[in-house]
Amino acid sequence: MTIHSLVIQKLLSTNAHLGRRLVEHHFKVYTYGFRNGCAIIDSDKTLICMRNACDFMASLIRLKGRFFFANTNPLFDEIVEQMTKKIGYFTPDAPWKLSGFLTNSYSPKKFRSRNRKIRFSPSQPPDCVVILDTERKSSLIHEAYRMHIPIVSIVDPSMPLDAFKKIAYPVPAKDSVEFVYLFCNMITKTFLYEQKKMGLERIEDVTTGELAVQKAEKDEN
User: What is the pLDDT of residues 7-27, one digit of tens each?
Assistant: First the structure.
């Protein structure tokens, strides 16, 4: 069995391929067919989209880009929290309730939403917004698009075209807990790999600099 087959089997085990009865026309390019009236999402295309999204994030990591992870599904809270802690990035500690969240969040103000305090951070807008449950995130998609911030997002067959076309890196899949865990794990590995590589490059630069200084001192003597 090839590595590709093993990865596809892992993807199928998350039920990411199980779509909905309602399938928007623009999403049909990602479907393999229908079963019992429900769309079957093409796992090969899901995998390609996941890799494209992670390649894009890797390029931003190398440029020291800023990321914003958004989630309102309480089932994903622990998964997202573990991921952001490992990679050292901010995720909002409250549901997406307020309009203008991205715009307002880069100020020192505090707001309250249903007795939950939200402290907005960081001080600059992100270079990428990653959305893990797009069904309730249309306002965030429109706002990030308006601010020219690239969006990486899980998308399902029922997403309207108006929101779908604003997503730079869509990942077609059913947003099951298992798939979100798999996707977050892939994002985590991408971050850690790039961060480690950047750390090794810094060490090499320092070592090269020290050797150059030592050589210069020897030449002077």
Answer: 677 766 776 666 665 566 677
Burial class (CB in 10 A: 0-12, 13-18, 19+), 210: exposed
Rounded (5°) CA angle 112-138-13: 105
> Which strand (E) or helix (H) includes residue 2?
none
What is the C-alpha separation between 18 and 24, in angstroms, rounded?
15
Kindly report the pTM of this predicted structure: 0.74
Distance between CA atoms of 37 and 20, rounded to whole angstroms?
8
Ranges of residues in the chain whose predicted pLDDT is under 70: 1-7, 11-12, 15-25, 36-37, 90-123, 134-137, 200-221
- Nearest-angstrom CA–CA distance, 109 and 119: 7
Bridge partner residues of 153 (DSSP): 131, 170
